[in-house]
Design a protein that fits this description.
Largest sheet: 7 strands, parallel
Structural class: alpha/beta
Strand content: 5-15%
Number of helices: 8
Order of helices and strands: HHEHEHEHEHEHEHE
Helix content: 25-40%
Bound molecules: pyridoxal-5'-phosphate
Strand order of the largest sheet: 1-2-3-4-5-6-7
């Protein structure tokens, strides 16, 4: 598309050279935001995909929140002007310093990956005299039908709290008085091209949600991913995924 006019000039350009079609990005964002708002959903952009400042600014202005997997991504989101209530923080290896920083910024929620992490966040929040909002990341054991290296929601992936741990985690909540459970988080993989994956995920999520409700835990938010596949073979065929 827009890149064609540069092809003849490739010799003159520095390498590596990144060309971004900002018009396509803006129309993708507008489409995604208007589709999501029909159902009252909010989209969060995963900063790890690309943190070029101009791209991030365009995404923020379109009204998306930020999905972070490290303390430095949380910092980048704050510095790029994302409101703290639009920032979520996942990842299996959060350090104490990352947790302290994110708590200090009062981000919307920590997506909590394990019972041990809940203990760590609770202790830090207690020390800082705060209450941390957390969403429990549950591993739903759903096959994303994508490459095994970008699969995150099968039982043998390292991410999230497994079904066998949920009872123990719920029992510990009474004791962890510096945590406020705001919802659940699920992410099953990236580059998902098969829409039945989302159907399977939603069925699991509904069952898990009722299971929590039966135990008196009301969940206000459900955070679900991952992303629709990019057609790398033929990017012009469907530039905005349907
Ligand atoms: C990688 C990742 C994302 C982004 O997933 P895509 O499918 O690439 O959009 C979102 N959330 C979390 C927690 C991730 O680890």
């Amino acid at each position: 598309m827009g890149a064609r006019k540069y092809i003849g000039r490739l010799q003159e350009l520095p390498t590596p050279f990144y060309f971004y079609d900002m018009d396509l990005l803006r129309s993708t964002l507008a489409t995604a935001v208007s589709e999501a708002s029909r159902y009252g959903y909010r989209i969060h952009y995963a900063l790890k995909a690309n943190f070029d400042p101009r791209i991030v600014e365009t995404i923020r202005k379109a009204g998306l929140g930020a999905d972070c997997v490290s303390g430095n991504e949380v910092r980048a989101a704050i510095e790029a002007g994302f409101p703290a209530e639009g920032i979520v923080f996942a990842g299996v290896g959060k350090t104490d310093r990352e947790i302290e920083y994110a708590l200090g910024q009062d981000i919307f929620s920590f997506n909590c990956e394990s019972a041990a992490e809940m203990e760590a966040i609770n202790a830090i929040a207690e020390r800082m005299g705060r209450r941390a909002r957390v969403a429990l990341r549950i591993n739903p054991d759903v096959d994303p039908m994508t490459h095994r290296y970008i699969s995150t929601g099968k039982a043998d992936n390292k991410f999230g709290i497994s079904y066998t741990e949920i009872d123990r985690v719920i029992a510990s909540l009474k004791r962890l008085s510096h945590l406020e459970i705001v919802g659940l988080h699920f992410h099953v993989g990236s580059q998902i091209g098969c829409m039945e994956v989302f159907e399977h995920l939603c069925e699991r999520v509904n069952a898990i949600r009722s299971w929590f409700r039966e135990r008196g835990i009301v969940l206000r938010h459900l955070n679900m991913g991952g992303g629709l596949a990019v057609d790398y073979e033929n990017p012009d065929r469907e530039p905005i995924p349907d």
